[in-house]
Amino acid sequence: MTVTLSPRALMSLLVNGPKATDVLHTALDLGLLDALEAGPVRLDALATRFGVLPLRLYKFLDCIESLGLLTRDEPDDDIGATSYRAVPGLRDAVNAVVGPDATERDRDRYPWRQLHGRLAESLRGEVSIDDGFAWPPKTAEQTAEFERSMALGLGPAIETVRRHSSRLWSDRHRLLDVGGGDGSLAAHILDTAPDLRADVYNLPAVAPLVAATRDARGHADRLGFVGGDFFREPLPGGYDALSFVRVLHDWPNAVARELVQQAYAALEPGGLILICEEFRTPDRLAMQFFWSYFLIGVDSSVSRLREADFYTKLLTEVGFHDVAVLPGTWELVIAYKPSGVE
Protein backbone atom coordinates (compact mmCIF):
# COMPACT_ATOMS: atom_id res chain seq x y z
CA MET A 1 0.00 0.00 0.00
CA THR A 2 1.32 3.43 -0.94
CA VAL A 3 1.26 5.97 1.90
CA THR A 4 1.51 9.70 1.24
CA LEU A 5 3.49 11.58 3.88
CA SER A 6 1.95 14.55 5.61
CA PRO A 7 3.58 17.95 4.93
CA ARG A 8 5.03 17.89 8.47
CA ALA A 9 6.60 14.45 7.99
CA LEU A 10 7.96 15.41 4.59
CA MET A 11 9.53 18.56 6.04
CA SER A 12 11.23 16.48 8.72
CA LEU A 13 12.79 14.24 6.09
CA LEU A 14 13.90 17.21 4.00
CA VAL A 15 15.60 18.91 6.93
CA ASN A 16 17.40 15.65 7.71
CA GLY A 17 18.38 15.09 4.08
CA PRO A 18 22.17 14.86 4.68
CA LYS A 19 21.57 12.21 7.35
CA ALA A 20 19.31 10.24 5.00
CA THR A 21 22.03 10.37 2.34
CA ASP A 22 24.53 9.09 4.92
CA VAL A 23 22.25 6.14 5.72
CA LEU A 24 21.80 5.20 2.06
CA HIS A 25 25.49 5.67 1.28
CA THR A 26 26.37 3.35 4.18
CA ALA A 27 23.81 0.75 3.10
CA LEU A 28 25.25 0.83 -0.43
CA ASP A 29 28.86 0.53 0.75
CA LEU A 30 28.08 -2.36 3.12
CA GLY A 31 26.30 -4.31 0.41
CA LEU A 32 23.16 -4.23 2.52
CA LEU A 33 20.99 -2.99 -0.35
CA ASP A 34 21.74 -6.10 -2.41
CA ALA A 35 20.62 -8.33 0.46
CA LEU A 36 17.48 -6.27 1.06
CA GLU A 37 16.49 -6.24 -2.59
CA ALA A 38 16.79 -10.02 -2.74
CA GLY A 39 14.59 -10.31 0.38
CA PRO A 40 12.54 -10.89 2.36
CA VAL A 41 15.42 -11.33 4.77
CA ARG A 42 15.39 -11.52 8.57
CA LEU A 43 17.03 -8.98 10.84
CA ASP A 44 19.05 -11.59 12.72
CA ALA A 45 20.35 -13.06 9.44
CA LEU A 46 21.33 -9.60 8.21
CA ALA A 47 23.12 -8.77 11.47
CA THR A 48 25.11 -12.00 11.34
CA ARG A 49 25.97 -11.65 7.67
CA PHE A 50 27.26 -8.09 7.99
CA GLY A 51 28.74 -8.34 11.47
CA VAL A 52 26.62 -5.60 13.03
CA LEU A 53 24.57 -5.27 16.23
CA PRO A 54 20.94 -6.36 15.65
CA LEU A 55 19.24 -3.59 17.64
CA ARG A 56 21.35 -0.92 15.99
CA LEU A 57 20.60 -2.40 12.60
CA TYR A 58 16.89 -2.38 13.47
CA LYS A 59 17.02 1.39 13.97
CA PHE A 60 19.17 1.83 10.88
CA LEU A 61 16.54 0.02 8.82
CA ASP A 62 13.85 2.22 10.37
CA CYS A 63 15.66 5.15 8.74
CA ILE A 64 15.40 3.49 5.32
CA GLU A 65 11.77 2.51 5.91
CA SER A 66 10.92 6.12 6.80
CA LEU A 67 11.99 7.07 3.28
CA GLY A 68 9.48 4.62 1.83
CA LEU A 69 12.26 2.43 0.43
CA LEU A 70 11.58 -0.90 2.12
CA THR A 71 8.76 -2.91 3.66
CA ARG A 72 8.89 -4.59 7.09
CA ASP A 73 7.05 -7.51 8.66
CA GLU A 74 7.64 -7.65 12.43
CA PRO A 75 6.21 -10.43 14.62
CA ASP A 76 4.97 -9.57 18.11
CA ASP A 77 7.52 -11.38 20.21
CA ASP A 78 10.78 -11.77 18.24
CA ILE A 79 12.52 -8.66 16.89
CA GLY A 80 15.22 -10.81 15.29
CA ALA A 81 12.57 -12.44 13.11
CA THR A 82 11.56 -9.09 11.61
CA SER A 83 11.83 -9.44 7.85
CA TYR A 84 12.59 -6.74 5.29
CA ARG A 85 12.45 -6.29 1.55
CA ALA A 86 13.66 -3.27 -0.41
CA VAL A 87 11.58 -1.71 -3.15
CA PRO A 88 12.64 -3.03 -6.59
CA GLY A 89 15.54 -1.13 -8.11
CA LEU A 90 16.65 0.49 -4.85
CA ARG A 91 20.30 -0.51 -5.12
CA ASP A 92 20.64 0.88 -8.66
CA ALA A 93 18.80 4.06 -7.68
CA VAL A 94 21.03 4.72 -4.67
CA ASN A 95 24.13 3.98 -6.72
CA ALA A 96 22.96 6.45 -9.37
CA VAL A 97 22.56 9.20 -6.76
CA VAL A 98 25.41 8.64 -4.27
CA GLY A 99 27.68 6.11 -6.01
CA PRO A 100 31.18 6.97 -7.25
CA ASP A 101 29.96 8.10 -10.70
CA ALA A 102 26.66 9.58 -9.51
CA THR A 103 24.91 12.26 -11.50
CA GLU A 104 24.30 14.21 -8.30
CA ARG A 105 28.02 14.24 -7.53
CA ASP A 106 28.61 15.69 -10.97
CA ARG A 107 25.96 18.36 -10.45
CA ASP A 108 27.53 19.40 -7.18
CA ARG A 109 30.48 20.81 -9.14
CA TYR A 110 28.28 23.60 -10.43
CA PRO A 111 28.40 26.88 -8.44
CA TRP A 112 24.97 26.51 -6.80
CA ARG A 113 26.41 27.77 -3.52
CA GLN A 114 26.39 31.29 -4.94
CA LEU A 115 22.61 31.20 -4.49
CA HIS A 116 22.43 29.35 -1.17
CA GLY A 117 20.93 31.59 1.49
CA ARG A 118 20.49 34.35 -1.10
CA LEU A 119 17.46 33.13 -3.03
CA ALA A 120 15.35 36.18 -2.20
CA GLU A 121 18.02 38.43 -3.69
CA SER A 122 18.29 36.14 -6.69
CA LEU A 123 14.53 36.23 -7.28
CA ARG A 124 14.77 40.04 -7.37
CA GLY A 125 17.60 39.82 -9.92
CA GLU A 126 20.28 41.03 -7.50
CA VAL A 127 22.29 37.76 -7.43
CA SER A 128 23.16 35.58 -10.43
CA ILE A 129 25.42 32.67 -11.20
CA ASP A 130 28.74 34.13 -12.33
CA ASP A 131 31.04 32.96 -15.13
CA GLY A 132 31.46 29.59 -13.44
CA PHE A 133 28.50 28.53 -15.58
CA ALA A 134 27.90 29.53 -19.18
CA TRP A 135 24.81 28.72 -21.20
CA PRO A 136 25.07 28.19 -24.04
CA PRO A 137 28.76 27.22 -23.61
CA LYS A 138 31.10 29.85 -25.01
CA THR A 139 34.49 28.13 -25.09
CA ALA A 140 35.75 24.71 -26.15
CA GLU A 141 36.48 23.89 -22.51
CA GLN A 142 32.98 24.88 -21.39
CA THR A 143 31.48 22.86 -24.24
CA ALA A 144 33.47 19.75 -23.33
CA GLU A 145 32.53 20.08 -19.66
CA PHE A 146 28.86 20.57 -20.46
CA GLU A 147 28.68 17.61 -22.85
CA ARG A 148 30.51 15.37 -20.37
CA SER A 149 27.97 16.24 -17.71
CA MET A 150 25.02 15.64 -20.06
CA ALA A 151 26.38 12.22 -21.06
CA LEU A 152 26.30 11.14 -17.41
CA GLY A 153 22.54 11.67 -17.31
CA LEU A 154 21.68 9.70 -20.44
CA GLY A 155 21.06 6.37 -18.70
CA PRO A 156 17.23 6.51 -18.71
CA ALA A 157 17.13 7.56 -22.37
CA ILE A 158 19.56 4.80 -23.36
CA GLU A 159 17.52 2.20 -21.48
CA THR A 160 14.27 3.18 -23.20
CA VAL A 161 15.78 3.43 -26.68
CA ARG A 162 17.33 -0.03 -26.25
CA ARG A 163 13.99 -1.41 -25.08
CA HIS A 164 12.32 -0.33 -28.32
CA SER A 165 15.29 -0.82 -30.63
CA SER A 166 13.65 -3.30 -33.01
CA ARG A 167 10.62 -1.07 -33.47
CA LEU A 168 12.65 2.08 -33.99
CA TRP A 169 15.51 1.07 -36.26
CA SER A 170 14.59 -2.14 -38.13
CA ASP A 171 13.71 -0.22 -41.32
CA ARG A 172 15.92 2.86 -40.79
CA HIS A 173 19.28 3.57 -42.43
CA ARG A 174 20.44 7.08 -41.48
CA LEU A 175 19.86 8.84 -38.15
CA LEU A 176 20.58 12.48 -37.34
CA ASP A 177 20.88 12.97 -33.58
CA VAL A 178 20.27 16.70 -33.18
CA GLY A 179 22.17 18.19 -30.26
CA GLY A 180 23.53 14.68 -29.66
CA GLY A 181 26.30 15.71 -27.27
CA ASP A 182 29.50 13.70 -27.45
CA GLY A 183 27.86 10.88 -29.41
CA SER A 184 27.27 8.61 -26.40
CA LEU A 185 23.59 8.03 -27.17
CA ALA A 186 24.22 7.50 -30.88
CA ALA A 187 26.93 4.95 -30.06
CA HIS A 188 24.52 3.00 -27.83
CA ILE A 189 21.92 3.04 -30.60
CA LEU A 190 24.44 1.70 -33.11
CA ASP A 191 25.28 -1.16 -30.73
CA THR A 192 21.80 -2.60 -31.29
CA ALA A 193 21.10 -1.40 -34.85
CA PRO A 194 23.69 -2.98 -37.17
CA ASP A 195 22.19 -1.57 -40.38
CA LEU A 196 22.06 2.02 -39.14
CA ARG A 197 24.49 4.91 -39.57
CA ALA A 198 24.21 7.86 -37.19
CA ASP A 199 25.47 11.42 -37.43
CA VAL A 200 25.57 13.78 -34.46
CA TYR A 201 24.50 17.32 -35.31
CA ASN A 202 26.04 19.84 -32.93
CA LEU A 203 28.17 22.95 -32.70
CA PRO A 204 31.53 22.52 -34.47
CA ALA A 205 33.39 22.67 -31.12
CA VAL A 206 31.87 19.28 -30.22
CA ALA A 207 33.49 17.44 -33.15
CA PRO A 208 36.56 16.23 -31.18
CA LEU A 209 34.33 14.80 -28.46
CA VAL A 210 32.31 12.78 -30.98
CA ALA A 211 35.53 11.59 -32.60
CA ALA A 212 36.76 10.34 -29.23
CA THR A 213 33.48 8.49 -28.64
CA ARG A 214 33.63 6.97 -32.11
CA ASP A 215 37.15 5.67 -31.50
CA ALA A 216 36.36 4.39 -28.01
CA ARG A 217 33.15 2.60 -29.02
CA GLY A 218 34.40 1.02 -32.24
CA HIS A 219 32.00 2.61 -34.72
CA ALA A 220 34.63 4.06 -37.04
CA ASP A 221 32.52 3.87 -40.23
CA ARG A 222 29.06 4.38 -38.73
CA LEU A 223 29.23 7.30 -36.27
CA GLY A 224 29.71 10.65 -37.95
CA PHE A 225 29.49 14.32 -37.12
CA VAL A 226 27.85 17.28 -38.84
CA GLY A 227 28.73 20.70 -37.50
CA GLY A 228 26.13 23.43 -37.46
CA ASP A 229 23.88 25.73 -35.47
CA PHE A 230 20.14 25.13 -35.71
CA PHE A 231 19.52 28.77 -34.81
CA ARG A 232 21.40 29.95 -37.88
CA GLU A 233 20.74 27.33 -40.55
CA PRO A 234 18.26 24.58 -41.47
CA LEU A 235 18.84 21.05 -40.28
CA PRO A 236 20.64 18.93 -42.89
CA GLY A 237 18.57 16.57 -45.03
CA GLY A 238 19.02 13.04 -46.32
CA TYR A 239 18.01 11.21 -43.13
CA ASP A 240 15.13 8.79 -42.56
CA ALA A 241 15.30 9.20 -38.77
CA LEU A 242 15.94 12.22 -36.56
CA SER A 243 16.11 12.48 -32.78
CA PHE A 244 15.87 15.21 -30.17
CA VAL A 245 17.04 13.78 -26.84
CA ARG A 246 17.15 16.21 -23.89
CA VAL A 247 17.22 19.15 -26.33
CA LEU A 248 13.79 20.73 -26.69
CA HIS A 249 13.27 21.33 -22.96
CA ASP A 250 16.05 23.94 -22.99
CA TRP A 251 14.05 26.33 -25.15
CA PRO A 252 10.75 28.27 -25.12
CA ASN A 253 7.67 26.81 -26.80
CA ALA A 254 8.17 28.85 -29.97
CA VAL A 255 11.72 27.57 -30.37
CA ALA A 256 10.67 23.97 -29.75
CA ARG A 257 7.99 24.37 -32.42
CA GLU A 258 10.50 25.81 -34.90
CA LEU A 259 12.90 22.92 -34.32
CA VAL A 260 10.14 20.33 -34.89
CA GLN A 261 9.17 22.16 -38.08
CA GLN A 262 12.81 22.07 -39.18
CA ALA A 263 12.86 18.34 -38.51
CA TYR A 264 9.77 17.82 -40.64
CA ALA A 265 11.36 19.72 -43.52
CA ALA A 266 14.68 17.87 -43.21
CA LEU A 267 13.37 14.31 -42.96
CA GLU A 268 12.92 12.08 -45.98
CA PRO A 269 9.32 11.06 -46.80
CA GLY A 270 8.25 8.41 -44.31
CA GLY A 271 10.96 9.57 -41.91
CA LEU A 272 10.84 8.92 -38.16
CA ILE A 273 11.15 11.62 -35.50
CA LEU A 274 11.98 10.66 -31.92
CA ILE A 275 11.69 12.98 -28.92
CA CYS A 276 12.95 11.90 -25.51
CA GLU A 277 12.71 14.30 -22.58
CA GLU A 278 12.13 14.25 -18.85
CA PHE A 279 8.40 14.83 -19.17
CA ARG A 280 6.59 16.63 -16.38
CA THR A 281 5.57 14.13 -13.68
CA PRO A 282 6.01 14.22 -9.89
CA ASP A 283 9.03 11.90 -10.19
CA ARG A 284 10.68 13.99 -12.90
CA LEU A 285 10.08 17.24 -11.02
CA ALA A 286 11.80 15.73 -7.99
CA MET A 287 14.78 14.49 -10.02
CA GLN A 288 14.97 17.86 -11.76
CA PHE A 289 15.14 19.71 -8.43
CA PHE A 290 18.82 20.58 -8.71
CA TRP A 291 18.43 22.26 -12.09
CA SER A 292 15.23 24.06 -11.05
CA TYR A 293 17.17 25.45 -8.06
CA PHE A 294 20.41 26.18 -9.92
CA LEU A 295 18.81 27.87 -12.91
CA ILE A 296 17.05 30.40 -10.67
CA GLY A 297 20.32 32.29 -11.04
CA VAL A 298 20.67 31.82 -14.82
CA ASP A 299 18.44 33.89 -17.12
CA SER A 300 19.58 32.30 -20.40
CA SER A 301 18.08 28.86 -19.69
CA VAL A 302 14.80 27.62 -18.27
CA SER A 303 15.04 23.81 -18.71
CA ARG A 304 11.28 23.41 -18.96
CA LEU A 305 9.62 20.14 -18.10
CA ARG A 306 6.57 19.77 -20.32
CA GLU A 307 3.82 17.16 -20.31
CA ALA A 308 4.18 14.54 -23.03
CA ASP A 309 1.00 15.73 -24.72
CA PHE A 310 2.69 19.07 -25.53
CA TYR A 311 4.88 17.12 -27.95
CA THR A 312 2.19 14.78 -29.26
CA LYS A 313 -0.03 17.76 -30.14
CA LEU A 314 2.88 19.69 -31.63
CA LEU A 315 3.89 16.78 -33.87
CA THR A 316 0.34 16.41 -35.16
CA GLU A 317 0.01 20.15 -35.81
CA VAL A 318 3.28 20.20 -37.77
CA GLY A 319 2.08 17.35 -40.01
CA PHE A 320 3.51 14.15 -38.55
CA HIS A 321 1.25 11.11 -38.23
CA ASP A 322 1.14 7.83 -36.28
CA VAL A 323 2.17 9.72 -33.16
CA ALA A 324 2.82 7.37 -30.23
CA VAL A 325 4.27 7.47 -26.72
CA LEU A 326 6.49 4.46 -25.99
CA PRO A 327 6.91 3.46 -22.33
CA GLY A 328 10.21 3.41 -20.48
CA THR A 329 12.25 5.02 -17.74
CA TRP A 330 11.88 8.13 -19.86
CA GLU A 331 9.05 7.80 -22.37
CA LEU A 332 9.73 8.27 -26.09
CA VAL A 333 7.43 10.24 -28.35
CA ILE A 334 7.68 9.05 -31.94
CA ALA A 335 5.93 10.01 -35.17
CA TYR A 336 6.39 9.72 -38.93
CA LYS A 337 6.46 12.15 -41.82
CA PRO A 338 3.90 11.01 -44.41
CA SER A 339 5.30 9.10 -47.38
CA GLY A 340 5.33 11.04 -50.61
CA VAL A 341 5.63 14.41 -48.84
CA GLU A 342 8.82 16.30 -49.60
From TrEMBL:
It comes from the Bacteria. The keyword Methyltransferase applies. Keywords: Methyltransferase, S-adenosyl-L-methionine, Transferase. It holds the Pfam family Methyltransf_2. Gene3D superfamilies: Vaccinia Virus protein VP39 (3.40.50.150), Winged helix-like DNA-binding domain superfamily/Winged helix DNA-binding domain (1.10.10.10). The keyword Methyltransferase applies. GO terms for molecular function: methyltransferase activity. Residues 170-320 form the O-methyltransferase C-terminal domain. Residues 14-85 form the O-methyltransferase dimerisation domain. One of its GO terms (biological process) is methylation. This is Methyltransferase domain-containing protein.
